[in-house]
Amino acid sequence: MIGIAGAGAFGTALAVALAHDGREVWLYARDPAQLQEMQHRRINPKLPGITLPQKLHLTGNLADLAITETVLLAMPMQAMRAFLASAPPDLLQKDLVACSKGIDLTTLQGPGSVMAAAGATGARAMLTGPSFASDIARGLPTALTLACACPRLEALQHLLSTATLRLYRSEDVIGAELGGALKNVIAIAAGIVIGAGFGDSARAALITRGYAEMSRLASSLGAKPETLAGLSGLGDLILTCTSGQSRNFTHGLALGAGTPAPEATVEGLATARAATRLARERGIDMPVTSMVARLAENDITLGEAVRELMSRPLKQE
Ligand SMILES: NC(=O)c1ccc[n+]([C@@H]2O[C@H](COP(=O)([O-])OP(=O)(O)OC[C@H]3O[C@@H](n4cnc5c(N)ncnc54)[C@H](O)[C@@H]3O)[C@@H](O)[C@H]2O)c1
Ligand SMILES: O=P(O)(O)OC[C@H](O)CO
Description:
The protein is an alpha/beta fold. Helices cover 50% and strands 12% of the residues. It has helices at residues 9-20, 32-41, 77-85, 111-117, 133-137, 153-160, 173-195, 200-220, 225-228, 231-242, 247-257, 267-282, 287-296, 302-310; strands at 2-5, 25-28, 56-59, 70-73, 95-98, 124-128, 142-148, 165-170. It has an 8-stranded mixed β-sheet with strand order 3-2-1-4-5-6-7-8, with helices on both faces. Helix 7 (173-195) packs parallel to helix 10 (231-242) and helix 7 (173-195) crosses helix 12. SN-glycerol-3-phosphate (G3P) is lined by residues 101, 130-132, 184, 187, 236, 239-240, 246-248, 267. Pathway: Membrane lipid metabolism; glycerophospholipid metabolism.
């Protein structure tokens, strides 16, 4: 039996895919009004056109996840530390699989370290890679990375793979979590480039240079280059920088166009600030990421940002 904490777009999509494939899934929704709507109408408004399957059980009581062996954490990254601090102690003994893409702003830790610091004693895994919630819920073919540094990795890979959701395993948790976190920042920048009308050539340059700085920070923190080049890094970078389905890209589009951004979970904003601090501590150059952090904080105008990026000293690629 599988538990999922966080009934937003992604938690619900994973619950739908796993339940359709025959697993019994318990999905925890903390908001009573949302829970009631999902229970009565068997839908989540964030996933239009999707009916919740019978094997998907809803609960507003976290203690109900006690009957599951594995719990997926599908809340925004900045909520994970507080969630685990107040979770029932037996939840910390389960195999935990983080699905959140980001870096905790207070501790500068990724999901694996946040789970360890909270006292999690089971497997601590990360599920990440190119995937929009609605694609997963609709049963479209999707390939993801499941990273875990413990012997339970292969068992978890089988537990969470379905006919349409293909999981590749990796032991490089740091690499998988940094790829998934940092690509969101570059996606905001890619959106800014398109929103401001700088064109597709500029976006391609931005994605490439963005990947270079993602790789610099990740390798300084112990990630393997091949992980960054895989689904959790390059794969997700391509998806998020090129699709109007991405909330990070869409947020950037609005910033670039000077229009109001839609209300949504935009993980790249906090990650830009956290990554800028990590990079500064390590003396790593991350010009795109630090520019996104400054733009998000209204510390610099778009025109100033472009002038600053284009007037950096010329260097070898
Ligand atoms: N939506 C996608 O396509 C997608 C794909 C891959 C990964 N992700 C990642 O999944 C994570 C969640 O994104 P989402 O799209 O589901 O966001 P969302 O905004 O749709 O939903 C977030 C959910 O988390 C819940 N939540 C917040 N704090 C909580 C807490 N303390 N306890 C329990 N629940 C809590 C909210 O009530 C909400 O239902 C993000 O890190 C995102 O990067 C999303
Ligand atoms: O909508 P976004 O920008 O949060 O992206 C969703 C997923 O991370 C894409 O893999």
